[in-house]
Amino acid sequence: xxxxxxxxxxxxxxxxxxxxxxxxxxxxxxxxxxxxxxxxxxxxxxxxxxxxxxxxxxxxxxxxxxxxxxxxxxxxxxxxxxxxxxxxxxxxxxxxxxxxxxxxxxxxxxxxxxxxxxxxxxxxxxxxxxxxxxxxxxxxxxxxxxxxxxxxxxxxxxxxxxxxxxxxxxxxxxxxxxxxxxxxxxxxxxxxxxxxxxxxxxxxxxxxxxxxxxxxxxxxxxxxxxxxxxxxxxxxxxxxxxxxxxxxxxxxxxxxxxxxxxxxxxxxxxxxxxxxxxxxxxxxxxxxxxxxxxxxxxxxxxxxxxxxxxxxxxxxxxxxxxxxxxxxxxxxxxxxxxxxxxxxxxxxxxxxxxxxxxxxxxxxxxxxxxxxxxxxxxxxxxxxxxxxxxxxxxxxxxxxxxxxxxxxxxxxxxxxxxxxxxxxxxxxxxxxxxxxxxxxxxxxxxxxxxxxxxxx
Length: 456
Ligand code: ARG
Description:
Blueprint: H1 12-18, H2 21-24, H3 28-44, H4 50-70, H5 81-93, H6 106-142, E1 147-152, E2 155-161, H7 162-187, E3 189-190, H8 206-212, E4 217-218, H9 222-227, H10 230-257, E5 264-265, H11 284-307, H12 322-345, E6 347-348, H13 350-359, H14 364-375, H15 379-396, H16 405-411, H17 420-423, H18 425-431, H19 440-454
Parallel strand pairs: 3-4
Antiparallel strand pairs: 1-2, 5-6
Helix pairs in contact: 3-4, 3-6, 3-8, 4-5, 6-7, 6-12, 6-19, 7-10, 7-19, 10-11, 10-12, 11-12, 14-15
Bound molecules: arginine (ARG).
Residues 20, 24, 80, 106-107, 110, 314, 316, 318-319 line the site of arginine (ARG).
């Protein structure tokens, strides 16, 4: 394709290091769409004849059908998807095929293909994340009143509801979706027609190709058009943060499924047994989601480092942009699907959660707050008094709400019978009515907001 001024062919090592077809064949649909939009514009602008454009377009349709049926042939000599397709076009329609590459370069071609691919990838991820949000909201609604221990430092802190806990992940995924849609909006400019780096002398219509490919507009600087990979980095950064959230949820499931916690029974479909210990039920899917997050972050780092310090405009380093994006996308899509499946089907052991919420002195703050409210005691002093009540409960091995009044009076005479109303876990969660708090009424209100937002 480019051998005009070369006397010898490439060394076989060169052929191997140069070729991107083994991975960029994944862009074939976008490549054909880009070429069809380009040749239609060339004909409309009288840059190629309508007859040649029709032959090229029909040939591209034939090639698409071939790829669909048999896959893309991997010929390292032809380097990449652009050349593999163009050379097949030449076989099919003859010399007219050579007119397709008028007024473009592989530099703007690949930037366009890749943007189209990332746009589709974002749509796929967004649909997956929407499904995850729906699953979280459904399970949160079922468990809006289910009391569990809330943790800080993984120590029992204050009782919360399981619905509240699950809705925390809803919020994370909501931000993830907004990052992906921001990324999509920024990617929505078409580099096609920037040509190699400087634009073209042919009377092209870049607005027409941008519109034909569903982009909002053409890019505004030809150098930037062919050297920019922000859209891929935006995708990877959004993917990194989404995978980070998924890995936190996965980690909770792993902890919750452990015997000392026993908060969940993971579904058979997402667990494996041990080949040696028959009692085992391993949370493999969750562990892999946790592990995949590391690989996705690695992909993000890889492309950042590839791009850093590259002078304008295109450099061949940039061919290495695609494997990390493809890898991250596959891992993310799988992680989203696995977490959604787990959220939908996990069994929550709410009796066990409640039992632990009641046993961890988690209502200590409620006693301190009551002393402030009812006794007018400064919070710091109330905290101290409560500390002694916790020590007494611990010594007697009873929950806070079962401490005898005599004991409480001994600790502080200002305590009276009314305190018992705030010491149960249900009273504790019900009292947290601040916006976004864990009170079941608040949780239900946020679930209603979420359902409105999700349109369900
Ligand atoms: N396969 C190349 C890539 O993915 C296409 C662009 C090649 N451009 C060039 N000037 N050699 O980056």
